Amino acid sequence: MTGSPVMNADRGERVPARAGTRKAEIVALASRMFREHGYHGVGMRALADAAGMQAASLYHHFRNKEELLLQTIYVVDRDMVVEQMPLLDGPGGHGERMARLVRAHVTHIGVNRDAWWVAGRELRALSPDRLEAVQGYRRQYQHRIARHLAEGVEAGEFDCPDPGLASLAILDLINGPNEWFDPSGRLTIDEIADRYADMVVRHLTPAVPSDGNGPTTR
Amino acid sequence: MTGSPVMNADRGERVPARAGTRKAEIVALASRMFREHGYHGVGMRALADAAGMQAASLYHHFRNKEELLLQTIYVVDRDMVVEQMPLLDGPGGHGERMARLVRAHVTHIGVNRDAWWVAGRELRALSPDRLEAVQGYRRQYQHRIARHLAEGVEAGEFDCPDPGLASLAILDLINGPNEWFDPSGRLTIDEIADRYADMVVRHLTPAVPSDGNGPTTR
DNA sequence: GTCTATAGGGGGATAGAC
DNA sequence: GTCTATCCCCCTATAGAC
Q1: What structural domains and CATH numbers belong to chain B?
Q2: pLDDT confidence of residue B16
Q3: Which of A102, A165, B23, B147 is most buried, judged by most C-beta within 10 A?
Q4: Which strand C nucleotides have any atom less than 7 A from protein CB atoms?
Q5: Which residues contact B171 (CB under 8 A, 6 or more apart)?
Q6: Through-space separation of residue B47 CA and nucleotide C8 C1' in angstroms
């Protein structure tokens, strides 16, 4: 890990562009085009055209093309760690907190579709140290979930034989809508979020939660 | 749907290269390089270099670059429909058959890692009609799973309130190892396959399978 | 902050010899 | 079935005027 995500502010690389600025507009545009054609499928000229400027002008706002990619991916990974992850520290039982995280995670996919799509497919185009930083965020998120599962088992609220694998399985599940969610489909993203949260909690809850002896400590 | 996958044999586009041929070698090589650098990140010259030939020589074997991508993706989608899907028609209960499909699916990811990675990320580079054909296979696979779930509910073996959504959730789950499976990791692909199969069946099995009245018909 | 102009290289694909 | 040679286009990025 190379440090806080807010470092290197003067280099303009790890700090997200503030909403409403020209820079943020261009990042949103790039996200959409990267989503549609792939990072390598979008040239700086095409990007500049869509932004109504010349390719050279983009280099006033961004050091190079990769920084546009990083800004896109950052939208996803920053929120994952600074907004979703802390939900596991909130009030309520382990199931309740898990459900809150799942709902927030799935909803985030629905309202940041371009960025998620890109973050899921174009990591490979990042330079090695940037790639490592992003993967660090993801590991952090996954390990936090695994810890939550283990603690839920300890508290007698979860039945989960392998929290490490289960954390991967849960991430597989809740990242899924990134692949197929369609705003014009049968279910809204909120409905999907609710049902996935129920699925996860249901799966983690012991088959016979109350056998007359209350939660066991096994 | 445009027809049987074995059509267009004379155009050499939908039929997989037979194993052991020079063509198959090149496809495997392309899969690996597409995985490492992305479809747009690999040039015909780089590909030819790796194959020990000149770029122009590739055009003797393949009509164009996209055909190499199609051949790669075909490895995944053909097997999904012609090998995994029929497992749901085999002998045994609905849970047993579902477990068989999950194991085969996850195992397939483990032994065709390059092709899976590419099939998961580079669909967008296909021309519209090829894209539609591939997506048709996937819909077919998903719908077959949804039908299996509905039939399992009818048979009283599954508890599954929304087979359509559940089929997506199951696919999200069993496609997951494509993102993170590491042959040098803690678990082999067979172990992951077994545990994911257990997870799916456990999730589909009613919480109280035997309440003294046998399976209900609700 | 945006422009014109351009450097320097790589892209996919084809023609035609052998 | 593989080669050399080549076409024409697009790529990222920079220099320097305004």
Answers
A1: 6-62 (1.10.10.60), 67-204 (1.10.357.10)
A2: 73
A3: A102
A4: 1-6, 10-16
A5: A176, B141, B142, B145
A6: 22
